[in-house]
């Protein structure tokens, strides 16, 4: 999942080595602990269980260690590789020898399951062996190449973290199989687009890890071959040649993986036309199709708004029309927002603009953290923005988190993201450190200009806007820069520079980087203060479901209200006053400390109102004040079933 652009010709930034940063306290340290102690072992149990996922059992059948038929999802292999990433990272971080041995045993099993020609996808291996009519590369929706791509990424991470070649050797053989497959497709013109194309990023990482250019060339070939697909669809982003894409469409995971892979390719081989496409897609998403939480892919099923009028094209888990952002039925698959983070990081590496880390922060702190319970053991596949008291219809997925969901792609994807979250704290260029996601941490920094030192960050972020950077343990004192990210939400604050002078932060500074130069590193201290008042956010009037409503945000966090937070019959009766004030207060849910907001709302008197009528005469009988609490959106659905709302109607009050 991560990307190593240290030696990439066209990358303007790179992340630090995997073990160079550690969270020391606060929000992200808590999340890392939750992932290691809750998510990683719980997911392992799910994959190991023959009766739950059947994933490891499928590998055992392929390896000749068990008998039976294939069971589970067609993308289970790839989901297991995603879990392996989080396990590899967690085991190394915590020096967990027992988990490291188990990972080696899994790698040995995977190697035994692999075919002589390098092919490795359990459904097809078992199908061909039992002659049940299932064979390799017969249906793109069998996710074979998706499985390959996640194997490539996991194997590259394993090599970097452990130094071992055992997993990478398996990946090399499968990548070589894929090379033969694509070369044949290029020769014959019979091309299929692999759905959820994880292999673009995976192949670029194979190139970076092995230093074998054939994998970079294969990544480029795989992307270029999309243009030769016959009868392509908007759902799969292959109806039009890639360089003719004008708007972001279709399946959100597939789209975000595609553009992340193209951005990875551009860090190695520049292409002006691909660069222009990425900019268009990013602007299309952020101007028209992104939720306030960073969720994306609003629709479960529908018809492409851009296809041929006479030939309807179904879209699934997809970007729809501009401003089509429903709340109750918001789909927002967790994997889509994770794909967005992957895409944003790769865009930052080639462009070095603050807007990309603004998006990483929004998605990571809001929709991605909301996808898992506070104990790390239950998950959302889709991420709604409102849970109503009563629905007259059944949703596709449960309205509360589940331990196991049939489409189990999201939990391990989230596990690898959170286990590796420290990779998003800092990036480096030739002579500067670029601040990404803020959090209490310690980083070992080595710049190409020769500077070598430890950077300590102390902060209560995202609940507190004060951040202190201190340089210690300087081994090589070379003048260097520290590029402070001023978030898009920041309207006021200050940066205390090493010499004691101050840079005032104003609204026009939002979503930019401010470079602080240190002539002498030893003893350098930089203090950053972002003012964090609670604020109202309004949506574009074209977002019909949010018209005349507001959401409450504070700093980088989106807030919501749940049933336990207000004593009313239903939140449908509530209004926010235009002049309401919300004050921060310490709060705790399931042992996790956080900052809630307390204030007042207006509750409508509903005398004579029929809650079941579709239409009725408008009556307004006045309002009364009620006490309310808002909690960070990521913490919702941890206190039982009930209503939840982000967007609330607003009433003008002098």
UniProtKB/TrEMBL annotation:
<dbReference type="Pfam" id="PF20736">
    <property type="entry name" value="Glyco_hydro127M"/>
</dbReference>
<feature type="domain" description="Non-reducing end beta-L-arabinofuranosidase-like GH127 C-terminal">
    <location>
        <begin position="535"/>
        <end position="649"/>
    </location>
</feature>
<protein>
    <recommendedName>
        <fullName>Glycoside hydrolase family 127 protein</fullName>
    </recommendedName>
</protein>
<dbReference type="InterPro" id="IPR012878">
    <property type="entry name" value="Beta-AFase-like_GH127_cat"/>
</dbReference>
<feature type="domain" description="Non-reducing end beta-L-arabinofuranosidase-like GH127 catalytic">
    <location>
        <begin position="20"/>
        <end position="422"/>
    </location>
</feature>
<dbReference type="InterPro" id="IPR049174">
    <property type="entry name" value="Beta-AFase-like"/>
</dbReference>
<dbReference type="GO" id="GO:0005975">
    <property type="term" value="P:carbohydrate metabolic process"/>
</dbReference>
<dbReference type="Pfam" id="PF07944">
    <property type="entry name" value="Beta-AFase-like_GH127_cat"/>
</dbReference>
<dbReference type="InterPro" id="IPR008928">
    <property type="entry name" value="6-hairpin_glycosidase_sf"/>
</dbReference>
<dbReference type="InterPro" id="IPR049049">
    <property type="entry name" value="Beta-AFase-like_GH127_C"/>
</dbReference>
<dbReference type="InterPro" id="IPR049046">
    <property type="entry name" value="Beta-AFase-like_GH127_middle"/>
</dbReference>
<feature type="domain" description="Non-reducing end beta-L-arabinofuranosidase-like GH127 middle">
    <location>
        <begin position="433"/>
        <end position="532"/>
    </location>
</feature>
<dbReference type="Pfam" id="PF20737">
    <property type="entry name" value="Glyco_hydro127C"/>
</dbReference>
């Amino acid at each position: 999942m991560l990307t190593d652009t240290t030696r990439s010709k066209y990358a303007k930034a790179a992340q630090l080595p995997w073990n160079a940063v550690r969270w020391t306290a606060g929000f992200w340290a808590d999340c890392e602990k939750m992932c290691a102690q809750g998510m990683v072992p719980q997911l392992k149990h799910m994959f190991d269980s023959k009766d739950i996922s059947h994933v490891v059992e499928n590998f055992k059948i392929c390896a000749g260690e068990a008998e039976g038929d294939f069971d589970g999802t067609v993308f289970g292999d790839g989901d297991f590789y995603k879990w392996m990433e989080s396990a590899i990272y967690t085991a190394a971080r915590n020096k967990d020898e027992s988990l490291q041995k188990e990972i080696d045993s899994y790698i040995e099993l995977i190697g035994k399951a692999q075919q002589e020609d390098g092919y490795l996808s359990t459904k097809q291996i078992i199908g061909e062996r039992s002659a049940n009519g299932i064979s390799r590369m017969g249906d793109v929706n069998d996710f074979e190449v998706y499985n390959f791509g996640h194997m490539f990424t996991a194997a590259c991470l394993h090599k970097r973290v452990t130094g071992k070649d055992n997993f990478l050797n398996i990946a090399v053989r499968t990548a070589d199989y894929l090379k033969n497959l694509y070369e044949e497709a290029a020769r014959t013109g019979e091309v299929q687009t692999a759905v959820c194309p994880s292999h673009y990023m995976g192949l670029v990482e194979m190139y970076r890890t092995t230093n074998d250019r054939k994998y970079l060339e294969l990544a480029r070939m795989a992307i270029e071959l999309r243009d030769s697909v016959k009868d392509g669809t908007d759902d799969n982003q292959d109806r039009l040649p890639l360089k003719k894409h004008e708007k972001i469409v279709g399946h959100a995971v597939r789209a975000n993986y595609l553009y992340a892979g193209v951005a990875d390719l551009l860090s190695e081989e520049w292409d002006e036309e691909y660069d222009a496409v990425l900019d268009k897609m990013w602007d299309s998403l952020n101007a028209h199709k992104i939720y306030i939480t960073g969720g994306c892919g609003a629709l479960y099923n529908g018809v492409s708004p851009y296809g041929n009028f006479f030939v309807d094209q179904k879209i699934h888990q997809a970007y729809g029309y501009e401003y089509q952002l429903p709340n109750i039925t918001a789909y927002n698959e967790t994997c889509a927002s994770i794909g967005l983070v992957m895409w944003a990081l790769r865009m930052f590496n080639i462009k070095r603009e603050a807007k990309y880390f603004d998006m990483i922060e929004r998605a990571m702190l809001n929709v991605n953290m909301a996808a898992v319970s506070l104990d790390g053991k239950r998950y959302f596949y889709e991420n709604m923005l409102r849970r109503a008291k009563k629905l007259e219809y059944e949703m596709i997925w449960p309205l509360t988190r589940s331990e196991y969901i049939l489409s189990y792609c999201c939990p391990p994807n989230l596990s690898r993201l959170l286990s590796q979250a420290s990779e998003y704290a800092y990036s480096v260029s030739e002579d500067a450190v670029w601040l990404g996601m803020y959090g209490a941490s310690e980083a070992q920094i080595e710049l190409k200009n020769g500077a070598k030192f430890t950077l300590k960050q102390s902060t209560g972020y995202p609940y507190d806007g004060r951040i202190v950077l201190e340089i210690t343990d300087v081994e090589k004192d070379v003048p260097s820069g520290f590029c402070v990210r001023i978030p898009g939400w920041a309207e006021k604050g200050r940066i205390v520079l090493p010499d004691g002078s101050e840079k005032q932060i104003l609204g026009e500074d939002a979503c930019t980087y401010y470079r602080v130069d240190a002539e002498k590193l030893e003893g350098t201290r930089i203090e950053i203060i972002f003012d964090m008042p609670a604020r109202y956010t309004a949506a574009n009037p074209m977002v019909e479901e949010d018209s005349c409503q507001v959401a409450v945000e504070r700093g980088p966090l989106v807030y919501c209200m749940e049933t336990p937070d207000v004593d009313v019959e239903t939140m449908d009766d509530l209004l926010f006053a235009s002049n309401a004030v919300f004050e921060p207060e310490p709060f705790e849910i399931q042992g996790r400390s956080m900052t809630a907001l307390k204030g007042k709302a207006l509750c409508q008197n509903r005398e004579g109102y029929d809650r079941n009528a579709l239409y009725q005469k408008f009556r307004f009988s006045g309002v009364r004040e009620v006490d309310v609490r808002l909690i960070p959106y990521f913490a919702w659905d941890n206190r039982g079933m009930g209503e939840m709302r982000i967007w609330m109607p607003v009433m003008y009050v002098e």
